[in-house]
Design goal:
It is a multi-pass membrane protein. Keywords: ATP-binding, Membrane, Nucleotide-binding, Transmembrane, Transmembrane helix, Transport. There is one protein chain. 60% of the residues lie in helices and 0% in strands. By secondary structure, it is mainly α. It has 2 domains: 219 residues, no CATH class; 87 residues, no CATH class. About 10% of the residues have low confidence.
Length: 321
């Protein structure tokens, strides 16, 4: 359950990537199925690293069994990998049907509570009502727990329970069995642990089922409104001031001295010609296109600096040698 909860942090990340997916989906860059397959492949090394780190940190500290040349260790690693991958797939699905992160976290908490409550560990199967037992047998966490207990206690802990009478309840109840088998019988795990391949099949089936639900969710559900809970680039009003400044710059009036013999006004644009140039560029859309590109660049980089545009006018300039 802990390795499954580690992947809960991926839920807001999936929701952050959702607008990009909607954009690419609208442009028909790829199919929805291709996107899900790519996500599944990308999650493989990350999940394997999580399972390996958790196994190395918890397995030996807890003093787990190393019987059979370390086969329980590798079985535990494979089991944790499947549980972590299942958690990642479930949270990926929740990100497709949740409009805001708060709704996704609430659904995730509800599912995790159901998986934990009906895992057969918190409530023993004998104490569970008959009409709720189907949840336990459909619960992948229950089968992960069964698989873990099987390869830990069926072969390991081979000391007789009679050596530990009075210490734990299952020692007194099953004195003729070994410690490991007495544990399995006391916690009602003996019957389910007879099929060692079944937990892996159920986990793989749940992973495939979660990804199929994700496929239908991404195809049929689309949230177009921006969530206030997710971070976004703040739109700045600074860029809009540049359009007004550009217009005033092109339409600036220049004063020229007609009596100056060292100044040739014919080489410089007149106020009427400068306004004509600006109007032509305005009609062709060049100014608007340039301003839009400039505004997008500023907002993308988060340059929301309050700048007051200033136009400098030089009147009556003359140059002498």
């Amino acid at each position: 359950m802990s390795i499954m909860l580690i992947n809960l942090v991926q839920l807001p990340l999936y929701m952050l990537q959702r607008p990009v997916f909607y954009k690419h989906k609208a442009q028909m860059f790829f199919r929805v199925s291709s996107y899900i397959v790519a996500k599944c492949i990308v999650n493989l090394p990350q999940t394997l690293l999580e399972a390996l780190t958790y196994t190395l940190g918890a397995y030996f500290l807890a003093g787990q069994s190393m019987e059979g040349k370390g086969s329980p260790f590798f079985a535990y690693l494979a089991l944790l990998f499947l549980v972590a991958y299942f958690g990642s797939s479930v949270f990926f699905f929740l990100s497709t049907i949740s409009s805001i992160p708060e709704a996704g976290n609430a659904l995730a908490g509800l599912l995790v509570s159901i998986f934990l409550l009906f895992s057969g560990f918190v409530i023993y199967p004998s104490n569970m009502p008959t009409y709720w037992k189907w949840l336990m047998y459909e619960n992948p966490i229950h089968w992960a727990n069964v698989s873990f207990c099987r390869f830990q206690f069926s072969e390991g802990y081979s000391d007789p329970s009679s050596n530990y009478l009075g210490q734990l309840p299952f020692f007194d109840q099953f004195p003729a069995k070994t410690v490991g088998k007495a544990y399995l019988a006391f916690y009602e795990l003996s019957e389910d642990s007879k099929r060692p391949w079944l937990p892996y099949v159920i986990l793989l089936g749940w992973i495939a089922f979660a990804n199929i639900l994700t496929l239908f969710g991404l195809k049929n559900i689309e949230f177009v409104e921006r969530s206030q809970s997710l971070p976004y680039v703040r739109k700045s009003t600074t860029a809009y001031n540049y359009e007004e400044d550009a217009g005033s710059e092109f339409q600036s009036n220049y004063s020229f001295s007609e009596n100056s013999e060292k100044y040739d006004a014919s080489t410089y644009p007149s106020p009427r010609s400068s306004g004509t140039i600006y109007r032509k560029m305005k009609n062709n859309g060049k100014v608007d296109a340039w301003m839009e590109e400039f505004r997008v660049d500023i907002e993308r980089n988060g340059l929301g600096i309050p700048v007051k545009p200033v136009t400098l006018l030089f009147e009556g300039l003359s140059f002498t040698r």
